Amino acid sequence: MKGILSLLVNNRPGVLNRITNLFSKRNYNIESITVGHSEQEGISRITVVVQVDDENVIEQMTKQLNKQIDVLKVTDITSQSIVARELALLKVVATSQTRSEIYALIEPFRGSVIDVSKESLTIQITGETDKIEAFIELLKPYGIKELARTGTTAFPRGTQRSTNNKSLSIV
Amino acid sequence: MTQKAVVAEKKVGKTKKSGADFLIDGLKKQKVEVIFGYPGGAVLPIYDALYESGVFHVLARHEQGSIHAAEGYARITGKPGVVIATSGPGATNIVTGLADAMIDSLPLVVFTGQVATSVIGSDAFQEADILGITTPITKHNYQVRKPEDLPRIIKEAFYIASSGRPGPVLIDIPKDVAVLEGEAEADPEMDLPGYQPTLQPNYLQIRKLVEAVSGAKRPVILAGAGVLHAKASAELKQYAEQQGIPVVHTLLGLGGFPADHPLFVGMGGMHGIYAANMALSKCDLLINIGARFDDRLTGNLASFAPEAEVAHIDIDPAEIGKNVPTKIPVVGDAREALVQLIAQNGKNPDASEWIQQIKDWKEEFPYWYEENGNELKPQKLMEMLHEKTNGDAIVVTDVGQHQMWAAQYYTFNKPNAWVTSGGLGTMGFCVPAAIGAQLAQPDATVAAVVGDAGFQMTSQELGVIAEMNLPIKIIIVNNHSLGMVRQWQEIFYKGRYSHSLLPHQPSFVKLAEAYGIKAYKVTTIDEAEEKMAEAFKTDGPILLDMNVTPDENVYPMVAPGKGINEMVGVKK
């Protein structure tokens, strides 16, 4: 299963090293990790997506992360109602024949073209991981020259619904 | 008052000093009794500040010796052991000790020198990324960027090392930071918003445990080193007696509960006593107090305590449920939890049959070995050691067969008298750790029980023992081999003794004498009786090279991968 942990950490030298080190030390697999400033000065938010066998592993990860002195808060948001987004940049082969087809794919996914050259288009797309992956699949036949994904960043929604049906949004 | 005046007044509390002087101040403020260290280029400014500081410094003969000595000191006192090492090789030489202290939860504060900030990252002379290297084996580590940060960092380091679950903290100080001056308050506030160890256990969890105990038929307490760290021996005894619950110890917990107490079952685990492993295997309630369910204790987890409801009291929440599913988690200090449990004074379990069963196991399957005339059996040696010290010594061991024999045969009746490397299993630990233990308690009798192989890993620390005339009694359990490796090769590798036999040895007697330490070679029981009696009457250090039966094995034993209910060698 996939687990998502949201961390608030002191923005100090070596902190990211301590966290990623902990994952490799304990033999946990990181699928993606994003780091950036949070709403508070000097405090960063880290979103870690992990691939685990069961929930016990996520609980153990949470506890181990909590032990780090520079980790202020760890929230396991795996089963919470969350907003999660990833950004991907794709450079895709675009000839005069395929160009309009590609544009037609971009539109429903609300991607945008951010660079154009004679042979290629560079597209920016944001959304949940599933959406990004669906989009990549659609573009593969045209020839993806380069792909860069940021990994998921996330936090809980303002209101937590009582049920856990995670709706996929295309926005 | 003008704004300028306010600023001026605020500065009154601040003093201007070099980083090295802030360090010395910090050590004094923490009432550090002894530092174990080794100088070098990057720590020259620190050693210069030490020179006339009045701080007591012990010069080890190798950095590894300094950190194991600090561990021995920390194990006996419960206070952080303090180490100073230089950058590069000095720092990398203490890595084993940090890993050892981390896994055995020993408080240390370790200062390493670092190359000057201007050249960090340039592969400068004696540069090592010690922060990166030690991140997974320290509770926390720092690199000091400004001298004025040192007072706060030192205060935090001592607090982190000794509170909650103790552990090592490393402070890396670039050379220029030690030289430069900064302005700081003498006693700054700590800035640790992410560190709040839970000491007081949750009342509802305590109640659950009380209920579980009252309904249990076959309860057992598994007491680990957490009891010793929490100084909870008296409370453990009081609680076990109040509720009538038998107590099993882990290797590191020995001494937390008196071994001569009727409720004491014995040590559990790979070379534990049959009764203890059966008690763990057949219990219906297992109360773990301050142990971490290490694999050497549990054996195969699939067959560990299969019928038991598990309660686990631990100051580190991450230990609860890590290896063994736990029904009643109690996060908190072992002493606080025991005090609350005693106050609850719950209904006692109906466990008379169970206690009788354990008694029967103990009587039927005690530790055993075969005597053979005057041949010096290592087990006999440990019994003799107990007798000659009235069971009153601090016993420090290395790792391997002799360690297990000491654990099995030196019945520990009081806390903080047992210093051993448990989790990491570090050979070479004994001799330097004995130095730390002796300095922690100068009047105590310290017996350093060490194998012939492990002794050769850190024997250079004899220099410290001789120089300071520390009255340590070094007992080499000499079987001319890496005994435990040899034992495993005999049992699991068809007797193919690949690089585990040490027929060529120096004369340990002459080696000791070269350092100015009195020494005897001993080959029989009679000689052992005589020389050991003399040793414990001698004021200064002494080394006894005890030539024991070379092919003796440690039994009983749980083979790797087996359950602890599948012991072999339980009877003659």
From TrEMBL, chain A:
Function: Catalyzes the conversion of 2 pyruvate molecules into acetolactate in the first common step of the biosynthetic pathway of the branched-amino acids such as leucine, isoleucine, and valine.
Reaction equation(s) it catalyzes: 2 pyruvate + H(+) = (2S)-2-acetolactate + CO2
Keywords from the UniProt entry: Amino-acid biosynthesis, Branched-chain amino acid biosynthesis, Transferase
Entry annotated with the keyword Membrane: no
Protein name per UniProt: Acetolactate synthase small subunit
Pfam families on file: ACT_AHAS_ss, ALS_ss_C
Cited SUPFAM superfamilies: ACT-like
InterPro entries, alphabetized: Acetalactate_synth_ssu, Acetolactate_synth/TF_NikR_C, Acetolactate_synth_ssu_C, ACT-like_dom_sf, ACT_dom, AHAS_ACT, AHAS_small-like_ACT
Its EC number(s): 2.2.1.6
Stored PROSITE patterns: ACT
Annotated ACT domain residues: 4-79
BP GO annotations: isoleucine biosynthetic process; L-valine biosynthetic process
Family to which this protein belongs: Belongs to the acetolactate synthase small subunit family.
Pathways involved: Amino-acid biosynthesis; L-isoleucine biosynthesis; L-isoleucine from 2-oxobutanoate: step 1/4; Amino-acid biosynthesis; L-valine biosynthesis; L-valine from pyruvate: step 1/4
Organism: Peribacillus glennii
CDD domains: ACT_AHAS
Alphabetized GO MF terms: acetolactate synthase activity; acetolactate synthase regulator activity
Gene Ontology cellular-component annotations: cytosol
Keyword Transferase among record annotations: yes
Complex and partners: Dimer of large and small chains.
Automatic annotation (TrEMBL), chain B:
Cofactor binding, per record: Binds 1 Mg(2+) ion per subunit. Binds 1 thiamine pyrophosphate per subunit.
Gene Ontology biological-process annotations: isoleucine biosynthetic process; L-valine biosynthetic process
Domain Thiamine pyrophosphate enzyme N-terminal TPP-binding: from-to ranges: 18-131
Cofactor: Mg(2+); thiamine diphosphate
Reaction catalyzed: 2 pyruvate + H(+) = (2S)-2-acetolactate + CO2
Entry's EC annotation: 2.2.1.6
CDD domains: TPP_AHAS (cd02015), TPP_PYR_POX_like (cd07035)
Domain named Thiamine pyrophosphate enzyme TPP-binding: residues: 398-545
Residues annotated as transmembrane: none
GO terms assigned for molecular function: acetolactate synthase activity; flavin adenine dinucleotide binding; magnesium ion binding; thiamine pyrophosphate binding
Domain Thiamine pyrophosphate enzyme central: start-end pairs: 206-341
Record keywords: Amino-acid biosynthesis, Branched-chain amino acid biosynthesis, FAD, Flavoprotein, Magnesium, Metal-binding, Thiamine pyrophosphate, Transferase
Pathways per UniProt: Amino-acid biosynthesis; L-isoleucine biosynthesis; L-isoleucine from 2-oxobutanoate: step 1/4; Amino-acid biosynthesis; L-valine biosynthesis; L-valine from pyruvate: step 1/4
Gene3D superfamilies assigned: 3.40.50.970, TPP-binding domain
One Gene Ontology term, aspect cellular component: acetolactate synthase complex
Organism domain of life: Bacteria
Protein family membership: Belongs to the TPP enzyme family.
UniProt protein name: Acetolactate synthase
Organism: Peribacillus glennii
